């Protein structure tokens, strides 16, 4: 409980004439310096919402800027969290980064973002650069699911959390979207609507766990009632165009795009064929880019919860930094939105 909101002995004009200190903020709110320090470092355990709100307002009103270098020297922390993403050009990644920045808004920690560009050597170089910057924690969206590719992290003592992808034989914490159950829900919907075949369109599955999980889930759920044909198109999307041009319709078929990048390319290429006018063709997928509402017809799709993914991974990282016991695996539920494309 705070003592009072604004002690009458504090004069805002006088405070602004000198460099604002953590003691000034504590006096302004009526709490201890320790409480202010805990707030700045994101340690909110046993801190009431009222206290957090008062501290936030005081920091803004007093224009207080914590000295990160001094904090680092005192606590042996850099207050830097490294983030390595597989492909920064993917709009899905941009949504996740925004959510993480929002989650860190009231924390002293800062993100350093590196792009692996879907390349193992580039990713390794990015990780090494972050290690050279003495990061306190690492959030990694790994290019590979093989833990042997990450030997340079084997002796790291800081928290490592995997974003949206899992890794074999590794016990790091992971926050990921619900790939398996959401894909199975969609497969059941396709069965209910009478589809006999699914064309599963994906970038190369090897080494990327979400792509593998989505494909296996579709096969497991749909193949009792129909067939699942795998099209791995990679970055060679002209190949997708050629396959669509020669595709022959023999039964009611649903095209399933395994992520937003593939979905965009699939929709664009379908428009250039006669398939788009067939009553036997349906289109669906993982809509990572929120384009389903503006397509014609509107798209039935699995929509991921970027905000919860981003906030959960930051909260998990901060809890580990603060020595809190954590659940190592967090699966964030998706939404299956039914529209007119099936």
Automatic annotation (TrEMBL):
The keyword Transcription applies. InterPro entries: HTH_LacI, LacI/GalR-like_sensor, Lambda_DNA-bd_dom_sf, Peripla_BP_I. This is HTH lacI-type domain-containing protein. It comes from Suicoccus acidiformans. Keywords: DNA-binding, Membrane, Transcription, Transcription regulation, Transmembrane, Transmembrane helix. Residues 20-75 form the HTH lacI-type domain. CDD domains: HTH_LacI (cd01392). It comes from the Bacteria. The chain crosses the membrane at residues 78-101. GO terms for molecular function: DNA-binding transcription factor activity; transcription cis-regulatory region binding. Pfam families: LacI (PF00356), Peripla_BP_3 (PF13377).
């Amino acid at each position: 409980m705070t003592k009072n909101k604004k002690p009458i002995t504090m004069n805002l004009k006088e405070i602004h004439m000198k460099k604002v200190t953590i003691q000034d903020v504590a006096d302004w709110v009526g709490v201890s310096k320790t409480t202010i320090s805990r707030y700045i470092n994101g340690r909110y355990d046993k801190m009431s919402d009222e206290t957090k709100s008062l501290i936030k307002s005081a920091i803004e009103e007093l224009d207080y800027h914590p000295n990160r270098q001094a904090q680092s020297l005192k606590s042996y922390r850099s207050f830097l969290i490294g983030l390595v993403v597989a492909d920064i050009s993917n709009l899905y990644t941009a949504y996740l980064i925004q959510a993480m920045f929002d989650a860190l808004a009231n924390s002293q920690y800062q993100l350093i973002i590196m792009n692996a560009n879907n390349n193992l050597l580039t990713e390794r170089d990015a990780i090494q650069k972050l290690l050279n910057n003495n990061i306190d924690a690492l959030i990694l969206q790994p290019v590979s699911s093989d833990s042997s590719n990450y030997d340079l992290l084997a002796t790291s003592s800081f928290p490592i959390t995997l974003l949206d992808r899992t890794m074999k034989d590794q016990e790091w914490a992971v926050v990921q979207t619900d790939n398996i159950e959401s894909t199975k829900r969609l497969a059941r919907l396709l069965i209910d609507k009478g589809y006999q075949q699914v064309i599963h369109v994906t970038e190369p599955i090897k080494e990327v766990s979400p792509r593998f999980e989505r494909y296996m889930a579709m096969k497991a759920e749909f193949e009792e009632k129909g067939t699942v044909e795998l099209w791995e198109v990679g970055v060679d999307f002209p190949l997708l165009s050629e396959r669509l041009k020669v595709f022959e319709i023999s039964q009611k078929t649903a095209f399933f795009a395994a992520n937003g990048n593939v979905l965009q390319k699939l929709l664009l290429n379908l428009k250039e064929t006669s398939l788009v006018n067939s009553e036997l063709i349906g289109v669906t997928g993982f809509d990572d880019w929120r384009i389903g509402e503006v397509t014609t017809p509107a798209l039935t799709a699995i929509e991921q919860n970027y905000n919860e993914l981003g906030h959960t991974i930051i909260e998990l990282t901060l809890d580990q930094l603060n020595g809190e016991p954590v659940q190592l695996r967090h699966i964030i539920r998706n939404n299956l939105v039914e529209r007119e494309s099936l």
